[in-house]
Amino acid sequence: MQTIGIICAMNSELARIKEALHNSETQQVGRMTFHVGKLGGKRVAAALCGIGKVNAAAFTQTLISNLGADYIINSGVSGALSSSLHIMDIVAATDLMHHDLFPNFLEGEGYFPNCARFPADERLSGLVEEICKEQGVPCVRGRIVSGEQFVNDSALKTQIIEKTQGITTEMEGAAVGHVCYLNNIPFTVVRCISDGADDNGAMDFDTFVVHAAERCAKITLALVERI
Ligand code: ADE
Fold first, then answer.
1. What contacts 186, CB < 8 A, 6 or more positions away?
2. Which of 71, 113, 178, 222 is the most interior residue, by most CB within 10 Å?
3. Which residues pair with 47 in a beta bridge?
């Protein structure tokens, strides 16, 4: 039986996913808790990793090494970088990038792992797009970029766009993609826009985070059924 690992940073992003698991039990690795259950004939290990790339990296590696994950999905909310994205739109990753790490440190001559843009699994991201179409939810495929900061500053937003050509930003996806790349594990990142990562970002986030997180969880659950 295939095992699908799901990683969310916040409780609002994980709640629906946890509820949907059948016969779920918790498994502990160090201080990390995993909710392991069944969904759509698959074994699912879902976890609340907390905010930031170090948390996300540790949980991703543990899902792969200790829980035997064959696929990883990172699900949650994000701030729009592209002006064509609106609050509540879904983004399915084409690839992931750190926006706060100079790409040459990862892919310059002789620099491990010779990759700074971690490709999401085409099939998984394609399924997300297909599910959104069926559900009448706007969905865009594109680059998701991550850094150790909540972006709520229009000038910083412009800098991140220029540096990365990302269409949305959050704080975990690149770490998930990076660790999956090192392990040859297929992954995708699914995000629902909660704010515009601009000067109003924090206010919009507070208003829309719960709705956006629920929409994202619903799409992620449909994805698990379809893998
Ligand atoms: N997650 C949701 N919105 C975000 C933002 N504006 N910056 C970073 N992470 C986010």
1. 70, 71, 72, 121, 123, 124, 180
2. 178
3. 7
